[in-house]
Design goal:
Elements (H helix, E strand, L loop, with lengths): L14 H7 L4 E7 L4 E9 L5 E2 L2 E4 L4 H21 L5 E8 L7 H13 L4 E2 L8 H8 L19 H20 L8 E5 L3 H12 L3 E5 L3 H11 L2 E2 L12 E4 L8 H6 L4 E2 L10 H11 L2 E2 L2 H4 L2 H10 L5 H8 L1 H16 L3 H21 L2
Parallel strand pairs: 3-5, 3-6, 4-5, 7-8, 7-10, 8-9, 10-11, 11-12
Antiparallel strand pairs: 1-2, 2-5
Helix pairs in contact: 2-14, 3-4, 5-6, 5-11, 5-13, 11-12, 13-14
The structure holds nicotinamide-adenine-dinucleotide.
InterPro entries: Aminoacid_DH-like_N_sf, Glu/Leu/Phe/Val/Trp_DH, Glu/Leu/Phe/Val/Trp_DH_C, Glu/Leu/Phe/Val/Trp_DH_dimer, Glu/Phe/Leu/Val/Trp_DH_bac/arc, NAD(P)-bd_dom_sf
Protein name: Glu/Leu/Phe/Val dehydrogenase dimerization domain-containing protein
Keywords: NAD, Oxidoreductase
Length: 366
């Protein structure tokens, strides 16, 4: 029987301790002196198929911060694929550094590391990576998705991610407020990047009262001007009067500090790993009566999009159709959580992991 591993605190300095604590299969440390590339690829679980998940580039302060991020992100991908009914496993990569370090040689070297895994891991975009970067990676490996449409790929997955997040938010609103209309709701969006900026357009169209924040002031002003959303400073963001908080920047924004401050009724956003501690903060949200739409479910649109490309049958309309299912799945999870009095994230993980276990048995029986 495959066991869900949830231990979040691991023995400092022990690589095996870290990869076994969350049930990973493999952690690949990549280094190239010539280009300065430092990347880590995490393969969490391949029961449903080879791992698929994006690459994030970030100036991590330490190696252990990067390892923790790739371990948590790749585990989330296993659940995301499983709950979305996709036949792929969970994986993710992180590149340690500032995005200005990226150039053709740097990205092609990363592509060669991916190629060396022989298809066990396929990449795509995540934070600070774009379709152009995928093109360079594709010069060295075929195990890459998120390529531009003109190159036969599925293009930027972010609009599909935003669509799924929007539907997940509507499902949560239906449960919390009795109607899935977002008209008049005060919605605070953190992060107006590739996903956040698309999400805001859906919200504005529904006449929601949208508040936005971002650490990139120029981007923030541009999006606010285009959409009419009201800007808020990062410092006071968690204290503003809001019905729905939509985290669309980085993870762990649901933590001891913010859960003291947030007065919203719903949390529904695209960021990965929103709960600082899955167990502690999942329970705290339940206790506070804040309905949390599980991140790995409602942000699955991007994975759905790159999965279609991975299969070689890309069709954007079909990707949107598949992403529409997020609404019903989200409601089913919120109902399970209510019925069993368990945190919504736990309810979602149980459903996802049950699929991995069942399919694992099918595969073993041959
Ligand atoms: N792009 C996708 O299709 C996709 C799919 C699934 C999940 N996600 C997740 O959604 C989130 C956003 O992804 P993206 O592709 O839009 O990334 P992005 O880099 O385009 O945008 C992130 C934005 O957040 C801002 N930001 C970072 N830290 C912040 C902070 N502390 N406060 C306010 N703003 C901050 C950045 O300046 C940037 O504008 C990430 O967590 C990503 O993992 C993305």
């Amino acid at each position: 029987m495959l066991e869900i591993k949830t231990k979040e605190k691991v023995q400092e300095g022990s690589i095996y301790g870290q990869i076994t604590s969350l049930g990973h299969e493999q952690l690949v440390i990549c280094y190239d002196e010539a280009t300065g590339l430092k990347a880590i690829i995490g393969i969490h679980n391949t029961v449903l198929g080879p791992a698929l998940g994006g690459t994030r580039m970030w100036p991590y302060q330490s190696e252990s911060e990067a390892i923790t991020d790739v371990l948590r992100l790749s585990r989330g991908m296993t659940f995301k694929a499983a709950i979305s009914g996709l036949n792929i496993g969970g994986g993710k990569a992180v590149i340690i550094g500032h995005p200005r370090q990226k150039n053709e040689a740097f990205l092609r070297r990363f592509g060669r590391f991916i190629e060396s895994l022989g298809g066990r891991y396929t990449t795509a975009e995540d934070v600070n990576m774009n379709t152009r970067d995928m093109e360079y990676i594709a010069m060295e490996t075929s195990h890459v998705t998120g390529l531009p449409e003109v190159k036969g790929g599925g293009g930027d997955p972010s609009p599909v991610t935003a669509f799924g997040t929007y539907l997940g938010m509507k499902a949560a609103a239906k449960k919390a407020f009795g109607s899935d209309s977002l008209c008049g709701k005060k919605i605070a969006v953190q992060g107006v990047g590739q996903v956040g900026s698309h999400l805001i357009q859906y919200l504005v169209k529904e006449d929601a009262k949208v508040f936005v924040t971002d650490i990139d002031e120029e981007r923030l002003q541009k999006v606010a001007q285009k959409t009419g959303a009201k800007t808020v400073s990062s410092e006071g963001f968690y204290d503003i009067d809001m019905d729905i908080y939509a985290p669309c920047a980085l993870g762990a924004t649901l933590n001891d500090d913010t859960l003291e401050r947030l007065q919203c009724q719903v949390v529904a956003g695209a960021a990965n790993n929103q709960l600082d501690s899955e167990e502690k903060h999942g329970k705290l949200l339940l206790k506070k009566g804040i309905l949390y739409a599980p991140d790995f479910l409602i942000n699955a649109g991007g994975l759905i999009n790159v999965y279609a490309e991975y299969l070689g049958k890309y069709n954007r309309d079909l990707a949107y159709q598949q992403a529409e299912k997020i609404y019903d799945t989200c409601l089913a999870i919120l109902n399970k959580s209510e019925k069993e009095k368990i945190p919504t994230q736990q309810a979602a993980i149980e459903i996802a992991w049950n699929r991995v276990q069942q399919i694992g048995k099918v595969k073993l029986s041959h």
